[in-house]
Amino acid sequence: MQWLENLGDLRFAYHRLTDMPGAYRALAGDLDGDGDLDIIVAAWLPPPLKPRSLQAAPLASIVCLEQMEPGVFVRHTLETDSAHYATLELADFDGDGDLDFAVGLGPQVSNAPEKTRWLAVWRNLRIPGREERSDL
Asked: Which of 84, 94, 114, 131 is the most buried (most CB within 10 A)?
């Protein structure tokens, strides 16, 4: 995960955020309610594409990069070993005023069991007594 900061006059500064094999979609939004942009990332790494060197390793599937100060992020791994999300969306799905996110399975799961969840919504729950911060 990386971003390029536009310095103007066709100059850019490179910023490395974290390593995440299969990172497929990333969106920025104020997930913790502190007024800055955090980043949520979903991975899509179908088994045929997963490098042999990573076959046995548990890989992050969903990561939240919480911005602590401008340009400084702390990584929170929310889910591992399910790198099959081909889509991700941020929205206030439960109508409580904060951002939630949803992930959807990619086409490589076409032979999934009947009870497979094709869409999962992760609700952002406020911690009682700590209104300035949220947990995903």
From this structure: 84
